[in-house]
Specification:
The chain is α+β, with helices and mostly antiparallel strands. The protein is built from four helices and eight strands. Strands 1-2-3-4 form a four-stranded antiparallel beta sheet, with helices on one face. Strands 5-7-8-6 form a four-stranded mixed beta sheet. Strand 7 and strand 8 form a beta hairpin. Helix 1 runs antiparallel to helix 2. The protein is elongated, with a radius of gyration of 20 Å. The model has no long low-confidence stretch (mean pLDDT 91).
Length: 151
């Protein structure tokens, strides 16, 4: 990894795993309610693994700057189309994603990650004006994008 490269995974905090499992277990208990037969075990066998899979999927997003591209999960854009990268704190993220947000913006935001980076795009073939990407270290991500971007 070069010095300008950056990578992070937007994992869930431990307390969200705990809350998700508690809610799944509570729902399974509600469905069971002392019944016998299949209703005794099926809610637990179905709901808890589905909840774990959903939580894992929500926390698997990878944000990286490498090989001259910004990668966010499966999406990627060459940095030659990036004109600016602006780090945002929680208030800035809320403002960018609020009422004045652009309907064609590409947004990957996670509510448990307070910061974000607004990446301004200038690609004639793409109507997307900017990306908003959650990041635990938005200043470092913006710096990596700016440092790696061709001038």
């Amino acid at each position: 990894m070069a010095t300008d490269d950056y990578a992070e995974r937007l994992r869930l905090p431990w307390w969200l795993w705990l809350c998700g499992l508690a809610v799944a277990t509570l729902l399974a208990v509600e469905l069971w309610m002392g019944a016998g037969g299949v209703r005794a075990w099926l809610p637990f066998v179905v709901l808890i693994p589905l909840t774990l899979a959903g939580l894992w999927r929500a926390g698997r997003i990878r944000v990286a700057v490498d090989g001259g591209e910004l990668r966010v999960d499966d999406a990627h854009i060459p940095l030659r189309f990036v004109t600016d990268a602006v780090p945002l704190d929680a208030a800035g993220k809320r403002e960018v994603l609020g009422v004045g947000s652009h309907e064609l913006a590409f947004v990957v935001q996670r509510p448990w990650v307070p910061g974000a980076v607004q990446v301004v795009i200038d690609d004639p073939a793409d109507p997307t004006p900017y990306w908003v990407v959650s990041s635990r270290d938005p200043v470092r991500l913006a710096a990596a994008i700016s440092a790696t971007r061709p001038q």
